[in-house]
Amino acid sequence: MDNLRKGFPVLKNYTYLNTAASGLLPEKVFEYRQDHDLDFLVSASILKEKQGEVLTEVRETVGKFFRCAPERVALVPNFSYGFNTLLEGLEKPMKALLIKNDYPSINWPVESRDFNCFYAEIDAHLEDNIRAALKKHQPDIFAFSIVQYINGLKLSVDFLKELKKEFPDTLFVADGTQFLGTESFNFDSTGIDVVISSSYKWLNGGYGNGFILFSKNVEGKISPKHLGFGSLQGKYKSHEGNFIGKFEPGHQDTLNYGSLSVALKLLEKTGMDKIEAQIQKLKNFSKEKFSEMDLLEDLVVERNEHSSIYNIKGDKKLFQFLRNKNIITSQRGDGIRVSLHYFNTIEEVEKLLTALEGRR
């Protein structure tokens, strides 16, 4: 277990149960960033002449990690930039299906444009609600989080794969920010059209980097309007009218995208099988204990499929009480959000439980 915690100095000072807000910066990524900026300091444009090679390597690393051909990987600074660029490339008006109270960076951009919006309710029967809404409204696009940011409700990859087969004409656009990095993910086998993700949470890639994974048949359904000199620069973008290049119109930041590459290689070295097993153990233990203490919503208790994010009952005073004990969480919705990554331990969950018992 100690091997899983190596390289995360924050864990020496805090019980960090807050990856859903901000992932930790690994020492390996920090070292890369120092070396990169030192190189830039002393070599300036000589370093930037290698930009194409660096970004090609990052694109290939992302594609390999998530099982998506590199020519279908776009590098973007964050989810919102990528998603808004995609929406501007859709013909409107269109019918859009959203999940009610999903992450604002999903729902707000759709609602602010000329889409006819419909919603699936979040409850214990979320999957049934989505299927019924798709059948009733036949939307052109379904935009959603794989994992809900407030309470951790999770849509299984198997369910999404089955759903896409039922509704092949609907464009499925998924936010993977609260999901990717928690288990192995083979994008090409899912049937999802587009997955967009920031990397600063479960991938531990730091801020300022993200990516988009496109299915083989999505080109032609989206016509991005962004263009710039960077749109045609690089191994996978050199031909005129390049699709992914329209998501990358300007100079790309090799510091931040290089950080993503280092972070993914660290996850790969650690082993996604080990990561997934540790998260599974933590989330099962936590759900059992939180349920016993009546800290969870009924809809979470009733579901089998869930992430390692839990929203427990508590107010601002409890949140501050935990913070004073160096237990780091977030206030979200009507409660306190606890999120567990592979570097967390059962002992840390027990420390949280002891603190909660002491407040009763």
From TrEMBL:
Q: Is Cell wall biogenesis/degradation given among the entry's keywords?
A: no
Which Pfam families does the UniProt entry name for this protein? Answer: Aminotran_5
Keyword annotations for this protein, in alphabetical order, are: Aminotransferase, Pyridoxal phosphate, Transferase
SUPFAM superfamilies linked to this entry = PLP-dependent transferases
Q: Name one GO molecular function term.
A: transaminase activity
Origin, by domain of life? Answer: Bacteria
Signal peptide region: none
Q: Which residues form the Aminotransferase class V domain?
A: 16-352
Entry keyword Transmembrane: no
Record-given protein name: Aminotransferase class V-fold PLP-dependent enzyme
Provenance organism:
Autumnicola lenta
Please name the taxonomic classification of the source.
Bacteria, Pseudomonadati, Bacteroidota, Flavobacteriia, Flavobacteriales
